[in-house]
Fold this protein.
Amino acid sequence: MNLPDNIFTIYSGREEVKLSRPQFAYAWYDQYKINLLSGKKEKTSPAQLHAFLDEFYFVDNHQKTVIHLTYEFGFYYLLDNYQYKKETLLGIVIGYEKKERFYPESGPRVKLGQISSPSWEKYTQAFKKGRKKLLNGDCYQFNLTFPFQFAFKGQTSTDFVNQFFASRAQRGAYAHVTWLPYFNTMILSNSPECLFQMRKNKLGFLCWSMPIKGSIKVSSPRKFNGAWSALKKSKKDQAELFMISDMLRNDLSRIEQPQAQIIKKKIPLMVPQILHQCSLIKVQLSEKITLGQIIKNIFPGGSITGAPKKRVVEILRDLEDYDRGFYTGSTIILDDEVMAASINIRTAEIDFNKGKLLYKSGGGITLLSNIRAEFKEMELKLLSFLKIF
């Protein structure tokens, strides 16, 4: 039964963990928030959502809290006096009581049928329009994305969950699902990307981030060495990674004015059918740090926007004719073992009222980009996600 208190989140850590029995749950919009347990509406604002995040002190060890931020919430930080479209969803905030080990069960396989995808003509139009911005010096890199839509019939939320968690080898490091019975929808993310992760130490908290830039197809693990050699030699991918890593280093340094450091410039990261490259950046933060301070300075992630971030977000509003929603936003999990936030790539929103799954994909564009290669990379990331079904 879709009772309001049946909300749950399952995530992958050292083992699969299920959070349930919500104590509070809100869907936060630009002008109001909905209590997902009672249905009651209250007036609010993006500033109040930030204030809510700013109340989370990591030293207080807030247990069993899950926060899903949409990409659009980042406009509050980046675009001066931005006027949201009416009823723009900014985030979901849930506080849970129960934590337990999750064990998937066998069940019917999920069957998806593709019903829409970006056309070559539409992609070309946006690519060329964005490339003019690069040539004019308005930006150095932008992350162009498009939606894909799939239909399903008869499958339940339980079917999706069981199949998603059936194979650990197919899952990203930040894989998770959240079931929202109020909307009869599910957020399902197979993200491999870390926006930030925290660990307590003697000085306060060590914070690190691992932005991903660069992708190459790998049909089998046996071809890893050759693929990694080719990816390391790609001037386009290296330029993207170094550019975004330096931007994120600056973002992290603004949190409390420390000096963030790039610890590893280039690391391989395998996901289904794709080899990525990422970097590792760390910064020392004090015990006084809040979640709001971190989000204000690094959200949305630079790897899914571009450089310079503020200008690129303005450009993308013109190039992309849809709301990204939870895609390229962030899921933040805070409990007694985890203090981490993903960047929600490889992420779908599943609407069980309509029997539709909405997925979005894209990639970084620079002056070195080849349009056909970028289009194929976008499709490759879709295929990587679909490997779980």
